[in-house]
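Example record

Each entry pairs one chain with its bound ligand, uridine-diphosphate-N-acetylglucosamine.
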Amino acid sequence: MGSFIIEGRNSLEGIVNIGGSKNAALPILASTVIVGREYILENIPEIEDVKDMFEILTTMGCSVQYENGIALIDTRGLNTHIVPEKIVRKIRSSIILMGAVLQRTGRVEVAYPGGCEIGLRPIDLHLKGLKKLGVEINEKNGLLVGKVKEAVSCEIHLDYPSVGATENIMLFAVGNPGRTIIYNPAREPEIVDLQNFLNVCGFSVSGAGTGVIIIEGKKLEEKDTVEYKIISDRIEAGTYLSAAASMKSKIYIKNIEKSHFKSITSLYEDAGCEIRETHGTIVISNDRRIKAVEKVTTQPYPGFPTDMQAQVMASMAVADGISIIEETVFDSRFKHVPELQKMGANITTIGRVAVVEGVEKLSSAEVEAKDLRGGAALVIAAMGADGISKINNIHHIKRGYEKFIYKLQNIGVIITET
Ligand code: UD1
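Structure tokens for the complex follow.
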């Protein structure tokens, strides 16, 4: 499974180049199957989740070439409606293939998805939306079997702005006749990127990023190669900000759209870091121990991202004072807490609320990454701890961080992989 060995230190300095967004790349890769043609996609991150998505596409008859962040994908050869079960169980976002494959073939067979174990992750909103758009869905031996009865357009009110459900509905509705309106959709920048990609393909989607998405459905005749560049990863950037905030540092974070992660930068500004932006580069400087933040509550965008909760907790574990961190998006996303406690963090949890009393310094320990972002939090904790730490189960971390060791070494972290 692999481990990271990290030697704690007192300061960080250097440049980090942020890669393409995992959560934008995955649905965009899924949506390439809607229309069989060639796609050139830039800024695709080199991470395990993307490799798994490539494997799903190639197993289904598509071809994929990938080098230096550029993927050349040809989906003309798609020859099945069955999404390979073994890989789907590894990555949750493979469920978005449902809408895309249904649109292309009229049928789909897909296993319940995998991904991080961060509590109940139902897909009822995905299924409700697809059913409203004319799909019949049954469960057979743990598989979801879908068939288009009569593709229609409609109005869908999401009870919760689910990212995945919004994407699945978009990917099916774009090819249906008529106008589909999604009320209360997810507003994440990755949804806007998916809309932009679909429009470059020739579909007609508007409103992403607001409270209403409007899709004018159409069948596409276009066969030209689609070229598109994916947005950069705000959570990867936020993770390096958390690392910088946890000790003395001056880090230049390049290739990032600051407006996508204002809630993260303002949190660290409140904590006492200096954050400046010059020509697409964010500079974070921190010359003393940060102050605890009164309260952070995770929420759907533009609220504070749940994908940053663990990393913020790691930095607050060494802040001056007491921070309250509340997780409202997922019901079981504190699995990093016992591991941080092994490193001397003073954290108490009551349900979905964590009370973090900062200590001067954490101590080294052998800990387990339980999920992707929780694993990144342990890396942040270890890089400032006294002594040498070992983080096991790093396959979780590799699902979402591109060239992690290389990028960390560039800012002065002493890290190796065994
Ligand atoms: C996506 C992101 C993930 C991020 C999450 C929330 C990708 C690949 N993953 O995950 O990194 O943490 O958004 O920002 O983009 N829910 C239901 N029913 C549904 C769907 C969701 O109850 O049908 C609930 C979930 O259990 C969860 C909450 O809604 O409690 C948020 O889920 P959702 O927004 O769908 O997250 P994902 O798309 O799975």
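The CA atoms of residues 161 and 300 lie 7 Å apart.
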